[in-house]
Amino acid sequence: MKRQWIPLKDLDIYDEFHYQKGDSFEVNVALDGNTTEYHKQGIEVVKQVLQEGKKVRPILVLRKGEHYKLLDGFKRAMAHKELGYSLIEALVCDQIDERGICLGETRCFKGGQSELSLHEGKTQEEQILYWSGDPEKLRIEYAENIHVHWGAYGKYRLSLSIEEFKVLAQAVIKI
Asked: Could you tell me the pTM of the whole model?
């Protein structure tokens, strides 16, 4: 896996989770677990971060000849596109295994770069609170809020405030 700058014009951003609709996009809520509006709000957050001059983590892509297929980083890619950037920094995989996992310096898979946060540097830090080590099973992350991922490659996601997470944790303890 290489870390490099790639042209946005050569990046296929859309997939079965996010598809182009006119000049915009829609989200397949059944697959993604989140709405189009949720993604648009996330894109605005990333745009704000970029406009503040902060560096966001690279997206994850699969090289397909002279083009690239987005594996993770839809909101980051869309934010760059909407702000008119011509390049975006990416972790580039040349091959993925039958499960869609790219193994290299960083263990990455579609829908999640498991050990990275939105920002690079010390502006924001993500902590893995729990991860089974298997991309098909439960992973709980803490960054700007709590993210609970489960299902094939994080297909299902739940974002909770810290207070909501505490309420959920107390409910689970009582079971």
From this structure: 0.62
